[in-house]
């Protein structure tokens, strides 16, 4: 039989949006996971108008019983199907969007299988990661000589997804390459306020593409009741550092805006522990990040806020990938580091 993926039929991973029965994905590692007892399953996908080349087309994966059976990009917006067959048994299928929100969106049109799909159990721990290209797994499958394209980005090799796996946690990634708290990445020293996370935190993302060709992710509000994290990890400041540099006045701008963003995140997640992290690619704003968190705690008397400095990448030993981003080795180390820190929290 053919099914549409709803919360009754699958565990929805990250932020998802449904239009006319199609489950749409925008953000990194968003997707769906379901189990069924049977012998075969076929999943049909669709894309948006950006699905035209390896730079913009959505990269996605299909995993069956923990093994990746498909890793590809959707290069046409027309329907595309993949499937598997096997021995009669209970199977777990997971579909993941590997590339980030910016370039394109991906729709799961339907699932066909000879057993009734149902959601896999919810994990005991839920974590939301808010970040930039590091959280997206930017360029992790490329080399220092490559340019960015969706075919070399894989969020499942990034520290956030891997940390969630280490903690056996459900997760949601809200991340955008080049974005910051007060400024996106800049090579001129001029502020780029159009590339910041706070205004789009409460949405489905920010993309050149559009769900079903008609709804921009940034125009679709996210319902925070659909995913209630125990922990929110904020890793923003690497791109702001390109604007702030060593200027104390600009660092103060970052601190002030960071506190406002913490207020927003707290309002949306009243029960979550907020963890502010920074340092994998650039350490210049680590002190400012810590100051923002401490001032926020003092001003609001909110004790459920913590900070962690992540170890700066060792480029000679562990390598770097596209645009000097962390390698898979560095991501794994960062995942272990943040997972160990989160284990130490009293939730």
Descriptive account of the structure:
There is one protein chain. It is globular and about 60 Å long. The model has no long low-confidence stretch (mean pLDDT 96). It is built from seven helices and 15 strands. Helix 2 (159-166) packs across helix 7 and helix 4 (248-268) packs across helix 5 (286-300). The protein is an alpha+beta fold and 347 residues long. 21% of the residues lie in helices and 29% in strands. The protein has two domains: 2-119, Jelly Rolls; 126-343, Rossmann fold (3-Layer(aba) Sandwich), CATH 3.40.50.1110. A hairpin with a 2-residue loop joins strand 3 (16-19) and strand 4 (22-25). The longest helix is centred in the C-terminal third of the chain and has 21 residues, at 248-268. The strands form two sheets. Strands 1, 2, 3, 4, 5, 6, 7, 8, 9 and 10 form a ten-stranded antiparallel beta sheet that branches.
Helix fraction, binned, reads 10-25%
Low-confidence stretches: none
From the coordinates shown, what is the CATH architecture of the largest domain? 3-Layer(aba) Sandwich
Q: Helical element count?
A: 7
How large is the radius of gyration?
Answer: 20 Å
Q: H/E element string? A: EEEEEEEEEEEHHEEHHEHEHH
The coarse overall form would be globular
Overall mean confidence score, pLDDT: 96
Query: In CATH, what is the homologous superfamily of the largest domain?
Result: SGNH hydrolase
**Which structural class should the secondary elements be placed in?**
alpha+beta
Number of strands: 15
Report the portion of residues in β strands.
25-35%
Largest sheet: 10 strands, antiparallel
Report the end-to-end length measured between terminal Cα atoms. 42 Å
What is the highest CATH level, the class of the largest domain? Alpha Beta
How many structurally independent domains?
2
């Amino acid at each position: 039989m053919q099914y549409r993926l709803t919360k009754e039929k699958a565990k929805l991973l990250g932020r998802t949006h449904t239009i006319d029965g199609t489950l749409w994905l925008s953000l990194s590692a968003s997707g769906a996971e379901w189990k069924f007892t049977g012998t075969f399953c076929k999943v049909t996908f669709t894309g948006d108008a950006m699905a035209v080349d390896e730079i913009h087309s959505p990269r996605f994966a299909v995993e069956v019983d923990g093994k990746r059976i498909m890793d590809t990009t959707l290069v046409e917006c027309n329907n595309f199907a993949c499937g598997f067959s096997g021995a009669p048994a209970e199977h777990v299928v997971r579909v993941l969007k590997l590339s980030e929100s910016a370039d394109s969106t991906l729709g799961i049109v339907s699932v066909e299988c000879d057993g009734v799909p149902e959601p896999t159990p919810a994990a005991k721990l839920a974590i939301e990661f808010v970040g930039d290209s590091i959280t997206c797994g930017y360029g992790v499958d490329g080399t220092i000589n490559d340019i960015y394209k969706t075919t070399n980005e894989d969020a499942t090799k990034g520290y956030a997804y891997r940390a969630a796996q280490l903690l056996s946690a459900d997760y949601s990634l809200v991340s955008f390459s080049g974005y910051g708290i007060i400024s996106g990445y800049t090579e001129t020293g001029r502020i780029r306020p159009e590339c910041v996370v706070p205004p789009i935190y409460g949405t489905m993302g920010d993309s050149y593409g559009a769900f079903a060709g008609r709804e921009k992710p940034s125009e679709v509000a996210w319902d925070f009741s659909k995913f209630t994290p125990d922990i929110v990890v904020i890793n923003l400041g690497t791109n702001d550092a390109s604007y702030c540099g060593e200027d104390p006045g600009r660092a103060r701008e970052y601190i002030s805006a960071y506190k406002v963003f913490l207020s927003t995140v707290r309002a949306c997640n009243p029960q979550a522990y907020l963890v502010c992290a920074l340092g994998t690619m650039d350490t210049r704003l680590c002190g400012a990040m810590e100051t923002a968190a401490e001032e926020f705690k003092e001003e609001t008397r909110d004790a459920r806020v913590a900070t962690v400095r992540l170890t700066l990448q060792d480029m000679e030993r562990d390598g770097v990938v596209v645009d000097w981003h962390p390698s898979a080795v560095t991501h794994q180390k960062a995942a272990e580091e943040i997972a160990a820190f989160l284990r130490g929290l009293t939730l």
